[in-house]
């Protein structure tokens, strides 16, 4: 199994190093894994001037899966847009057609108290956000900053979805719901935006193909509120690129920390890119404070969705669970008075637990 490893910037390399410890445990058991590390984001800009060098893209396209850390940082925020780290990630998603982004938000029982919400609101929570990842206002043309007729600058972007783009990710939402509680909530802003009126129409049109799934629709502002009011009402949420970005960061706090949420970004050929939903966290980079569990849980998703080893995915998730049960906490998930471990100590603890199971 060939894995392209793209550490990126900020805490990216720190948490990817912990994920590699997990892969090394499995390799020591005889599982054949070839890891090829390549630059992306700001690290690639520094080396080549391009946040997604052609050699990195080729490596990803030829791999069975891509393990991605995080990209970005204040140092790069003033570069021309095409040279910014974020463009590297967006181009990679687009080039590989990774349109289905799965972002599961599950509350581990041991972390119920780590959430900023009351225990009775979050305990037992298990939701899956299916975020469309290659369309929407992220990629729509025209876009830019121009001078208008009154001589002032105006910024503009285009929110656009074709029906085929909506249909393929909606099928993902329905199929995921079929494997879970069979409830799908499609989130849009159809009361204002034509683009999302089409979203609602297309999702509604394909619903008859999934008679066992209960489909509901919700406006995104209400969805943001409902996620903190009563999050367990949701099973699977399917939504567009921008709304999914925002709602998944919100959902992560239900689980205790954004450092807990993994993701899988999949194309129709079964290729996948696996990354935490959070960013490069420049405020804590280089300090050994980052929680590597989102990255490690992304490795579990990689075994499940691209490498067809659900057994290994479950072992990794079980190892994470057992570490949390032992009370091992990075700063972001620790309660007052609880001891805190570093990024590296957390990775070591999961590796040890994995060896034992
Ligand atoms: P962020 O997700 O990097 O950080 C938000 C907050 O969460 C920060 O306080 C950070 O310290 C904390 N945090 C994030 N991950 C954590 C972890 N694993 N453990 C503990 N705490 C963690 O978002 P931001 O600060 O808005 O963005 C920083 C940079 O990251 C920007 O350049 C942005 O473009 C980029 N970004 C990249 C990705 C990606 O690579 N997929 C995702 C989001 C943001
Ligand atoms: C994410 C990030 C990215 C996004 C940025 C870095 C381009 O926020 O993966 O959630 O907006 O998709
Ligand atoms: Mn995001």
TrEMBL record:
List of residues binding Mg(2+): 221, 245, 249
Manganese as UniProt keyword: yes
GO-annotated biological processes: L-leucine biosynthetic process
Lipid metabolism recorded as keyword: no
Residues noted as binding substrate in the record, renumbered to the chain: 93, 103, 131, 221
Cofactor note: Binds 1 Mg(2+) or Mn(2+) ion per subunit.
Ranges of residues in domain Isopropylmalate dehydrogenase-like: 2-350
Subcellular location: Cytoplasm
Cofactor: Mg(2+); Mn(2+)
GO molecular function: 3-isopropylmalate dehydrogenase activity; magnesium ion binding; NAD binding
Residue positions binding NAD(+): 73-86, 279-291
SMART domains in the cross-refs: Iso_dh
Family according to the record: Belongs to the isocitrate and isopropylmalate dehydrogenases family. LeuB type 1 subfamily.
SUBUNIT field: Homodimer.
Protein name: 3-isopropylmalate dehydrogenase
Gene label: leuB
């Amino acid at each position: 199994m060939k894995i392209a490893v793209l550490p990126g910037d900020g805490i990216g390399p720190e948490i990817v190093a912990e994920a590699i410890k997990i892969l090394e445990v499995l390799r020591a058991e005889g599982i054949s894994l070839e890891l090829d590390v390549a630059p992306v984001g700001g690290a690639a800009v520094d080396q080549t001037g391009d946040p997604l060098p052609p050699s990195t893209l080729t490596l990803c396209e030829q791999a069975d899966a891509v393990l991605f850390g995080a990209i970005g940082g204040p140092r790069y925020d003033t570069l021309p847009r095409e040279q910014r780290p974020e463009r590297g990630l967006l181009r990679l998603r687009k080039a590989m057609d990774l349109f289905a982004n799965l972002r599961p938000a599950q509350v581990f029982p041991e972390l119920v108290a780590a959430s900023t919400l009351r225990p009775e609101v979050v305990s037992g929570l298990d939701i899956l956000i299916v975020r469309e990842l290659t369309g929407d206002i992220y990629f729509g043309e025209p876009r830019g900053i121009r001078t208008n007729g009154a001589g002032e600058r105006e910024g503009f972007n285009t929110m656009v979805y074709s029906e085929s783009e909506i249909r393929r990710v909606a099928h993902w939402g329905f199929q995921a719901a079929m494997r879970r509680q069979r409830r799908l909530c499609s989130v849009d802003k159809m009361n204002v935006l034509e683009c999302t009126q089409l979203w609602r129409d297309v999702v509604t049109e394909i619903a008859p193909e999934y008679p066992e799934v209960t489909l509901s629709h919700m406006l995104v502002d209400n969805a943001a509120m409902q996620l903190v009011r009563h999050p367990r009402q949701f099973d699977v949420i399917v939504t567009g690129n921008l709304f999914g970005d925002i709602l998944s960061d919100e959902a992560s706090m239900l689980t205790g920390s954004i450092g807990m949420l993994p993701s899988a970004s999949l194309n129709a050929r079964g290729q996948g890119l696996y990354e935490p939903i959070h960013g490069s966290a420049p405020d804590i980079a280089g300090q050994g404070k980052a929680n590597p569990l989102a990255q490690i849980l992304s490795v579990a998703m990689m075994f499940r969705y691209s490498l067809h080893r659900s057994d290994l995915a479950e072992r990794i998730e079980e190892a994470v669970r057992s570490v949390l049960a032992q009370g091992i906490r990075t700063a972001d998930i620790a309660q007052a008075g609880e001891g805190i471990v570093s990024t590296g100590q957390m990775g070591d603890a999961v590796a040890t637990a994995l060896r034992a199971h």
